[in-house]
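Deliverable D4.2, example record:
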Amino acid sequence: MKKENITTVEQAFNMVKQDGLTLLYVPEKLKTMEVCLAAVQDGGFNLEYVPDKLRTEELCFEAAKSVIRLIEEGEYDEGDDEDFLELVPKELRSKVEKIFLDDSEGEDDLP
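Output generated by the structure prediction step:
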């Protein structure tokens, strides 16, 4: 799908809900918080295609939870969490990293 074919936020949301990686094809002006949230919930590494201004604490936490889920399901490798943290804004990394540490210690109360 080309960016020119995506013309509404609703269309963008429906696409990324089915496959978060399609956020790559969503024009910047249609990348709302809701669209980006749906993309990172599908796959945390889709954070790469989220505009910097939308990489909030909430969005990064949701992306991290998705990465943890996919590691547990065997779709990502254990070391992928370090690669993922590179996508998180520096000022949020220590908070997001704590999610991975808590998960490895068996704590279930993720934010």
